[in-house]
Structure formats: structure tokens, C-alpha cells
Amino acid sequence: MSILVYFALLLIIPIIASGQVKKAYNKYSKIRNSSDMTGAEVARKILDDNGLYDVGVEEVKGQLSDHYDPRSKTVRLSTDNYHKPSIAGAAIAAHEVGHAIQDAESYSFLAFRSALVPVASFGSNASFFFIIAGLLFQASGLLLVGIVFMAAAVLFQLVTLPVEFNASNRAMGQMVSSGIIRNNEERESKKVLNAAAMTYVAGALVALLELARFVFMFIGMNDD
């Protein structure tokens, strides 16, 4: 029964987090912000206010595909957020600009996360091959290698948390100080940003649960 509960949690936690994001986004993407600024205009204003004139703002296809690309120094906003003057669009645009500001200031957690990218990518892809081989052949050494690789990927997700929360805090500060949002819009913007942040928390929690499960398997294998 306990294993069923475990796998149920692995499925339910991300579903709940994703549902909260969609719920908040669908609600506040339909409400105009008081400054009547599109996401593109919000991003450009905050970038210029912080002297980041060389950082571009581009439209990208998809929904909630918004991101900051540190390689090309570009904030990319999904179509609706780029063109519409909504509360959700403004909040998400400001959040992505928060990452651009982190990059410009060499924010330590962002730099650490960037350094972890190749290791985490390899670890995420390779870990299960070693783990499955270790379990099939009852080879604790192979299982341990898989656990180490998985731990690198989990570390990446954990380091992502302060990066995302810091970007959201920067976003709120920038939107308020520049007058992009006012009064109740602060609370509504926080709902959008907090819901998005919970997806990262959920992902990290699931990854930690998976890592712990294989660590306990390794301990049990050695005890035998």
C-alpha cells in the first residue's frame, strides 16, 4: 500500500502545481493591468530602467513558454503575454526580466545553476541507465553511480528555487516602483508568480523523493 501512496504522490504533486498555475494564469490573463502596458512594454521599461539596453525582448510561440536566454541576452515572451496588457502578462514579463537583472549582476545562484547545466543534463539522462542496470544485476556499484548522477540533477533543481524566488521578488519590486501595477494588483500579481514558483517546488520535491527511494534501495542492497 505504501508504494502505491508513493507513486500517487509523484503523480499528484506536479498535477496540482500545474493546475494552480493554469488557474491563476487563466484568471489574470483576462484582467487588464492599470498601466495598460503589454508584457513587451513592461519588459522593455524595466530593462531600460536598469540600464539593460542591450537585452532584447522577443515574441516566442506557445503558452507560458516565456524565458530569459542568457546566451543571446534576450527576454522571450509567449504571444499572449507579449501583446496583451494583462496582469498576468506584466507579472511574467517582469519575472523574466528579473533573470536578466540577475545575469547582469552575476547573481551567485544563477551563476552556479548555469555551471551545473551540463552536469545536470548528463546526470538526468544517464542516471536511470545505471540505476536500472544496478537493480537488474544487483550491482550496488552501478546503482551508486546512478544515484550520484541523479543527485547532480536534483541539485540543479534545488538551486533553481532561490533563482526563481529571487526573480519574482525583483519583479514585484520593479513593477511597484515603476508604477506598472497599483493597489490590489500587487496581490494579484503575487498570486500569478507564487503559482508559477510552486511548479519548481513541486518538481524539486518529486526529484528528492525519487532520489531518496533509490538511496534506500542502495542501503538495503548493501545490508543484504
TrEMBL record:
Superkingdom of this protein's organism: Bacteria
Tagged with keyword Transport: no
InterPro entries found in the cross-reference section: Zn_peptidase_2
Claim: Membrane is one of the keywords in the record: yes
Transmembrane segments: 6-25, 115-137, 143-165, 192-219
The entry's keywords: Membrane, Transmembrane, Transmembrane helix
Pfam hit, one: Zn_peptidase_2
Protein name: Zinc metallopeptidase
Species of provenance: Alkalicoccobacillus porphyridii
